[in-house]
Amino acid sequence: MQSSLIRFSRSLAPRWLSIAAGAFLLSMFFLIGNLYSSQVELRQNADARLVSIGEARAAEISDFLSERRQAAVRLAGSEDIANYFSNLDLGMSVRYGLFANLAAIERRFQATLDEEKYQGQLAYLRLAFFDRNGIAQVDVGASSAPTLSPTGNPAEPSIQIDEKRRLIVASAPVLQKGTMRGAVETVSSLNLLASLVSTNDLGQPNEFLLGDDGDVLLPVERERSPIVAHGRALPFPGVRKDRERGTFTRD
Hints:
- By secondary structure, the chain is of the alpha+beta class.
- Helix content is 42%, strand content 22%.
- Strands 4-3-7-6-5-11-10 form a 7-stranded antiparallel sheet. It has a two-stranded antiparallel ribbon with strand order 1-2.
- The protein is rod-shaped, with a radius of gyration of 32 Å.
- The N and C termini lie far apart (90 Å).
């Protein structure tokens, strides 16, 4: 029995090197497989994190646009504007009665312009109240900040983004007894959203906000590049572009 074991061990002796080499190769394959799986998992986690950050950015932009639109709705439905039309229906003129109403509307608009801020910056450049003929009855703020001709249904609140002039214009109708009597428009700077585009320690952007055609909306004055143009665009949620006018309209 002992001699058989000795002969068996002697027969295996020349093969120990091959066995050891095979075991080493198997362990290397196992380690490489684990390393590859770990790298794939890390990449998937990184991609998921980027998607999560992008969705958070999109949600913040959507909230900002919704707030601008709701602010226009609140101003359009203010008591001061309602009193103006009530007195107008009674036959009052600007000289007799309506002047006080317009002054009250102007004070409300001016207070809104001065007090409402977004991350430390003034939320509005201009606030205007138009009658049904499109004539501005009250206009406060920067007169050089243009308003835009409304698109879509003028009886519904809307948001337009003027890419060329870098403006965000919110419009809300003034409705009384189901009839559109006028409109309120707010004008904000598109650059208010710049804080949502992250940068590195050197101030260089890590993210870009792109229009549908690949043009960089934020950061400001970034030239179109192959990397940016073919990167994943993060358009404004619910906003479509009017290519002829160079503006974006919120659905």
